[in-house]
Write a structure and sequence with these properties.
single chain, about 130 residues, Pnp Oxidase, Chain A, 7-stranded antiparallel sheet, DUF2255 family protein, UCP028498
Length: about 130
């Protein structure tokens, strides 16, 4: 797997929001959606606020490649399932709580709930 360039990792990790563009089966891009992103160590993670019901999440289940834009960085990425790693999910929960605490429990609680944890994906830059 490809690592993030340090500058890109810092800029994306610090961004409040990320624009995610999933790819249709025919290779054309879907309309971008705005989601949250967190950094844990040298990796970036996303989750679906709505769990499996999130449209963008259902789309990346069909095709695990897409495009992101955040912090002035745009990259093609692969979405890697990391939802089964309990210890990592705990760190990701803490990252969401720390980064987005200003939004309060109304928004944080769904992001750390079991249905969202089950959608955890690591963003891996395309080679």
């Amino acid at each position: 797997m490809t690592d993030w360039p340090k500058n890109d990792l810092e800029r994306i990790g610090a961004a409040d929001e990320l624009q995610l563009t999933s790819i249709k089966q025919d290779g054309t891009p879907r309309k971008p959606v705005t989601i949250w992103v967190v950094r844990v160590g040298d990796d970036l993670y996303i989750r679906s606020y709505r769990g499996n019901a999130g449209a963008w999440y259902r789309h990346i289940q069909l095709r695990s490649e897409g495009h992101i834009s955040a912090g002035g960085v745009t990259k093609d990425v692969t979405f890697v399932d990391t939802s089964a790693d309990e210890a990592l999910n705990n760190k990701i929960d803490a990252a969401f709580q720390a980064k987005y605490q200003k939004y309060g429990a109304t928004y944080i609680d769904p992001m750390i709930a079991p249905q969202a944890r089950a959608t955890t994906r690591k963003l891996v830059p395309a080679a």
